[in-house]
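Homework help thread (please don't just give me the answer)

Our assignment gives two proteins as sequence + structure token strings and asks us to describe the second one. The first is just a warm-up. Here they are:
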Amino acid sequence: MLVTQRVTKLCLLILCIWISSTTLAQDKDTTKRTRRTFDSSMFTDNEPTRSDYLDAFEKDFQVLNKVPIVAASFVQLNGISYHLTQGDSAIAILKGRLAGNDRTLNIRNLQMFNTLLDELDKNITDYSQYLEEYDKKMDALKKELLNLRKDTLVRHIFRDSALRNTFVPQLQQLRSKWKLADSLIKTNTTAINNLKAHSSANVIAIEELEYKVDNELKTVSSRAFGKERRYLWEPRSQIKTGASADGFKKLVSDEQKLAGYYFANTRSKRFWLLLTGIVFFYWVWFNFRSLKRMNKKDALAAFHFKYVNSIPIAASLVVILSLAPLFDSHAPAIYVESTQLLLMFTLTWLFWHNMPRNIFYLWIIFILLYLLLPLIRILGMPMSAQRWANFILNSASFVFGLFFLFRSNNSGYRHKVILFAAGIYAFFNLLAALFNLFGRVTLSEIFGTTAVYAFAQTASLAVFIQLITEAFLLQIQSSRVRNNYPEHFDATGISKSISRFTIVLAVVLWLIVFTTNLNILDALNDLLTDIMTAPRQVGDFSFTLGRAVLFLGIIWIANFLQKYIAYFFGDTGDDASIDNKGQRSRLLVTRLILLIAGFFLAVAASGLPVDRITVIIGALGVGVGLGLQNIVNNFVSGIILIFDRPLRIGDTVEIADKKGRVKEISIRSSTLLTEDGAEVIIPNGDVLSHNIVNWTLSNNHIRVALSFTIDKINNFGELQSEIREIVKANQHALPRREPEILMENINSKVIGIKVYFWCKDIQLSSLASGEVRTAIYKHLEEKGINVA
């Protein structure tokens, strides 16, 4: 019974626990349902609306619309593909020429190959930069498209059929744009990757070819001094025919293809060369036309120009062809020979009118010998026959060079340049003949080519120097005529100054051609590069010779320009002949700007650190405190004179006890030209520290006073009117200012007359005074009035 009661109590307890847990669970479910119902009703307004979906579509469309725009910006892809294909053809030809023991290769070929490979490498570098830029743009687009895939709002539309039916037009447009974008990305990505692989393969091939060309050039240099062929007098051990006709044609075809590719990829060099010639032609033509329009062509008669004329076609060709080596030193042989041939014909035309006949006939003989050199190479003769032809040609050229020297001495035509050219021509032709005789064929070709081109280049550069000098003299004279300056000026000193600068350029051009033909230009260039770029240390300061030379060169050019820029405006520095003070003051400011700009450009080009400049300025500050006060004072005073302009070049001034005309205002001092012809140099600091009497600051007028003593007369008023008319009739008197005739020192026998009038130009005051005084004396004598 007790056990039964305990079991009953336990069952009731379990039942109560179950009922309680069930009730609690129901309460929790009710609470959850209530909470969910509450949450749902609370956030109903934050569900995406139609506008939200449309905004998402708009963002996707913006990204997808960028794909065609970016793809259209890849404008260089077709051009890169075309040029890489063209490069493949050039590389294939070069590989074929360098693969075997091609004995037709000469130094000019190898130099051209080297330049061509450099251009190919440079072009591929440019193409790679374009491709890398395009690849970056494609990567950016791909990232944006990948972000579109993560757009949950648009993805929800695809999962919800009701929403999908609502946005059918937008989804169709999205699909079409996506397909177009995907196609463009795949196409352009493939094209870019293929072109990158293509350019990488070409880079590897170019590096290998450059290595081979360098080895060939070194081999030629080392092999040149050894015996390459049999001695010329030795019989051949076996009969060897020359190259077959097909082989020769293929060789010529390959040369033409390489030359065509070379010209196509280096046209910018010839563009600037051609532009230089066009500018020179227009410059000369414009100055002649200006003089013709003003009927002043006779103003050039005193210069006796030889080479410039009103239509300077020949002169412009000489300028272009003489400068060609500066723009393209390793051009193909066909280009060099063509330009030199055109230059020879042009020089022949100019020499026909300006050279003594006996010397001109010698020049014609040189032209004939010159034409035989490329002719022997073009004929494609067997090596033995070609060597004999070259030996005969070199020997004849040597004899001709000696005869030219002898004939020039006897005829009195001892121009140093001609004698130098003939000597070089004879000497190198002799070397060419000797080396050919002893089997050194490479050296023979080098010296033979050097002899011909050295002579031709010397003659052309001599004409080039004269052309530039004459063109500058023409510019000066035409500017003087346009500005109504006196036509006569001292041209001797100006010609020497211009010639010195042109000679420097001519020597550089001659050395480029000379060393190129001797195959030592690259070696010299490498040697000079090593010397100029090697770092040097002086204390804590490091520098290179190249930067130092560049600094000094820019300073020298700036100084040259500021010194001779006035020539373009007809100002030769002769202040007695020019009275355009405004222009001369502007020129002075221009010179200062050129000097300052040249200095800062030189500092920037030399790579001089700014902190070093600060140190230099600090050192200068200490120097000023120790003793450079006067120098700095004069320098600052010069700048003040230039910009404040209390006096200008051409002004007539009085400074302290010095009177004269301002001839020059420089940075440190100013120069006065006195009436006696003396040039007084006054430091600029002293100029500003004294009172300046400027007679011509606002105008050139000056009042002139004349005194007369005559016998006493009764009708002075009539005489006064007559003298006034005499003064007005003088051409130098200023018409708008009435002359003044005053009477003074009157006594019973004589009277004094004072005549005041204004002269137009202070420089003509003495002349005007003498003319008026003479006219008055003559009038008084005619009237019978005695002058005391």
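The one we have to describe:
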Amino acid sequence: MGQGVPPRILDPTGVMPDTGQVAERRRPPATAPRDQPRLPSGPAARRLGLLVGAVLLVLAASFAAITQRDHEAALEDGWSIAERAAYAAAEHAERSLAAAHLITDRVAETVRREGPDAYRSPAGQAAFAAMLRDAPQIGSIWVLDPAGRLAAASLDPDPPPVDVSDRPFFAPLRGGADSVLSPLLFGRISDIWFFAYNRAVRGADGAFVGIVQASIHAAEFQRFQARLGLGPGGRVGLFRASDGVPLMLHPLPSSPPTDPSAPEEGLQAEALRLPAAIAPAPEGRFEATGPGGERLLVAWRVAGEGERFIATAALPRAAALAPFRDRLVGNALLFGFATAMVAVLAWGVATAVARSAADRRAAELGRREVSAVLEATGDGVFAVDSGWRITFLNRQGALLLGRGQELVGMELWDAFEAAIPAPFGACFRQTMEARLPTTAEAFWVMAGARLRIDVHPRADGGIVVFFRDVTAAHEAARRVADSEARLRRVLDSVFSFVAVLEPDGTLLEANRGPLQAAGVTLAEVRGRPFWDGPWWRDDQAARVRVQEACRSAAAGATLRFDLELRDAGGRRVTLDFQIAPLRDEAGRVTHLIPSATDVTARIAAEEALAESETRLRLAQEAAEIGVFERVLPGEVSHWSASLLRLHGLDPATHGPWMTEAEHLALIHPADRAMHAARRGALRGDPAHTRFAYEVRIRRADTGEPRWIASRGEILRDPHGRPALVRGVNYDVTERRRAEERQMLLAREVDHRAKNALAVVQSIVALTRDTDPERFRAAVTGRIAALARAHTLLARDGWDAAGLRELLEQEVAPYRGEADAPERVTLDGPDVALAAGAAQPLAMALHELATNAAKYGALSRPGGFVALTWELAEDGGLVLRWSETGGPPLAEPPARRGFGSSVIRNTVERQLGGHCRFDWRPEGLACTLDLPATQLRAAGGDGG
């Protein structure tokens, strides 16, 4: 490069100044006005306005479409609720009328033989009570004589002879109708609302003998309808399909009818008006206006065999749309927020456009100022554009590189005769590609020195490089680093805590261990008093003791003692602490050397374990998970506080220990026997190490039933014997309830109806009798047994049926008078039958009881039946029927009767069990073995 020729100067932004000389650094005059941004106008303003209007139009259209769809979805949800309620109301009414048919058949037969007064006796009243127990849907039974006077009633053993011939059902029945569904009536004796199934009774010659009425009370109907989920404004009704007269309403009329002879006239104002087109279709929906002017969503369903009726369920339209209105407020707020954001964005765009012109004017002045600054710096600087072309080189850079004007305009990689050092080339490429600052240091032959470079990205896609000569500094730093590295290696090789202090206690060096333990670097603590270090600054007693030790060591003493303190993590540590003076050749103390050895490994491990247990306990309590543990063999478990609260017990008063008897008392009675049997089976099988099951409990504080899921494991000793049971319990009631609600309707309609119809069909097909009356009695009795089991299952939600309650229902008619010794005794543990086993077992027991009443022990006054049951070792059920005191048996029957065939087929084919008959001289003994699969499923050990 020629002497005396100044290097060519370029702006690092890539714009060449007007001359090749160095630009003067000038400040703008203090009075120079600054450009103020102005909002755009003309075509730009119109385009911006059109864009904002289009965005707002799209937002408004989206809001309207979402609102419309949400409104329609909310209405459809309301219709679905009404349709489910109408279906359930029709199903309930059909079951009630089916029970009324059975009861009126039985009562009408007795009235036909013995007259209307047949049920005024105590035996008749007992028969009424037995029938009402079997059919809880029926509220009362009434018998009227041919003149329409009350002859007998289940509510009063000696009713007054009230004349009800003006009731709307009397005239049609006396005129020849076989049965009539009465409208909703208000009782003259009972003072309650009801509707009734009325059956005419006629003698063999066709003469009118009287009327039997099975009344369905409003109270029972109201209890059922309250569970349909229609809410406070919901309405439910039953109407005769023939004329639309109300049979039952919810809510009930506000007052009794004023005209007893035509009560339906007053009810029309209380009921919904059914459309004329409702009759031909079996179900549907319509909108109606309620008595108070409220719009209702009404669903209806036609049901019934013979006496057809219409069930309606109405949900207020306002209630169905309430969730929609709540969501509409949120959507409106969101739309308003979006509109405001569009307006703010539009204002920001307009302002940005206005500022761009002012920014361009300011950029030109900035370029000149940057060039002046880069020339004034002591570093060499060159700039490269995005195409690797050198656009700027300052005077100091030209001096360091020994080249100048000829480099400007050349590509970086071609500009230097000597190769660019690899670290520098890597930095150039990394900054150019990643747009991030980089730094490197290396020897560059072209400069004949070690250079340090700092590379920065430019706004236009290029880079700016700052570089300086660091040869002398690097060498000095290397010598210092070598000395410090040797000292550092010595300190870090020491296992214990070692430091080097000035005589006044100022920290100079410390090994890596204490620094890492305190979470600090050496740079953060170097130069500070040793007793102000992070190791004991929060422990005033330790800090004072260390400070006194430093003063004693500075005076020439060597000290050693145990020092207890807490580290930065809060752990208690015990140090074997020692501090000694370091002297020079003259004996003067030049440094202090403190050291310490941590002797708290065992204490730290114990504290860590305790902290872990505390976190686990807090997590379990937060998640409402209870933990139990039991050492086997043993009947006492250790329960966590959260597990006690889960069962409704107060940990402060109960304590952590729970006996097996106390635990069993908290389990639902229907699940206890199964729980105990499955627990014993699991313990006895070495292949089982884990268990998972769900069981019902009753909370100790409220008595509320809850579903509890139990998960855990059984640890066994080397011989396979159970040694420890531990696990967790948590509440799954809401999930179980949701599952039950979801499956209840489908299971009841599909599975149970099919099974019941199949059993009834087989009963009718297999019952053989030439006498129609005996044929009807046999079929009726067997169907009644099915109905009782059906009612029991329905009451428990089709989940299980209690064995004892099922047996009590089947033998109730044969147990004797209240003041006489029981003729049938029951003895056995609480057992829950699976839902599918209840009806078949009820059939088998009905046949045993019927046979005993006709031919066995119950056919004589002194006869006696003992009914016992127990759980078998395999988890199954053994049920024994034993008769004594009946007619003596010389030998077993010559042929198998229909009853024994029904029992054997039911137990062995349907239930997969085994049946044994022992015809002893003193009476029949029958043993029924049921497999464990016919009991309510469960498993595991609940702790």
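TA reply:
I won't write it for you, but here's a hint about the kind of observation we're looking for: The mean pLDDT is 78.
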